Amino acid sequence: MMATTHALAGVALATLLGVLFPESAAGTSVIPIAAAALGGLFPDFDLYAGHRRTLHFPVYFSVAAAAAVLVAVAATAFVPAAALIAVSVALFLSAAAVHSGMDALGGGLELKPWLGNSERAVYSHYHRRWLRPRRWVRYDGAPEDLLVAVAFALPAVAVYDGSVQTGVLAAVGVSAVYVLLRKPMVIVTQAVVDALPASVVTRLPARFVEDFR
């Protein structure tokens, strides 16, 4: 799924926490919201180095998030001064765990995922194997991916105003543009790769050209 979809999933998680516990750090500060959005993005920082494997931990992020939630609850109850940091860390890890799990619901790890050729969705270090794609969302940038992003955005748009609402709407706008350009970008990239000398193509990371050969 799109990076923006994952970020908005994190924001939705923080929004839910803020609504359920309005007096908590999540309900009184934008820092936990930002931490959740960053946590939703974080696993995709491995895009250029072992994508969906280097920073994707479906099991380990979930375990770490559960532990962080317990720490956040304890901090809120007994060490209020540390609650903001504890809640932010818990939301960051929870959003990263959700991201890692969500990738198994999308398409495979390939540059043309709509073809459905790859059986690698996300790597589980705990199981020491790739999890297969369910393709509930066929590929990142598919129309249904945009629908999921909008669904995650709606709670924050309804609850917040100001910078949070603006940021969420901007993420939805970026998502919509990406959906429109997703397949055309592949067509352009294919043309560029076809025009490059073989000596240049062989120097490029295999992940970015193997589906275009």
Structural notes for this entry:
With 213 residues, this protein is an all-alpha fold. It contains nine helices and two strands, in the order αααααββαααα. β1 (122-124) and β2 (129-131) form a beta hairpin. The longest helix is centred in the C-terminal third of the chain and has 34 residues, at 162-195. It starts with a helix and ends with a helix.
State the gist of this model.
This protein has 213 residues and is an all-alpha fold. Helices cover 62% and strands 3% of the residues. It has helices at 3-20, 25-28, 31-41, 58-78, 83-102, 143-159, 162-195, 198-201, 206-209; strands at 122-124, 129-131.
Shape: globular
| Radius of gyration over C-alpha positions, nearest whole angstrom | 19 Å
Question: How are the strands ordered across the major sheet?
Answer: 1-2
Tell me the strand percentage band.
Answer: under 5%
The assigned structural class equals: mainly alpha
Helix count, DSSP H or I runs of 4 or more residues: 9
* Largest β-sheet summary: 2 strands, antiparallel
Ends distance: 24 Å
Number of strands: 2
Give the topology string: H per helix, E per strand: HHHHHEEHHHH
Helix content: 55-70%
- Low-confidence runs of at least 5 consecutive residues: none
| Mean pLDDT over all positions | 93
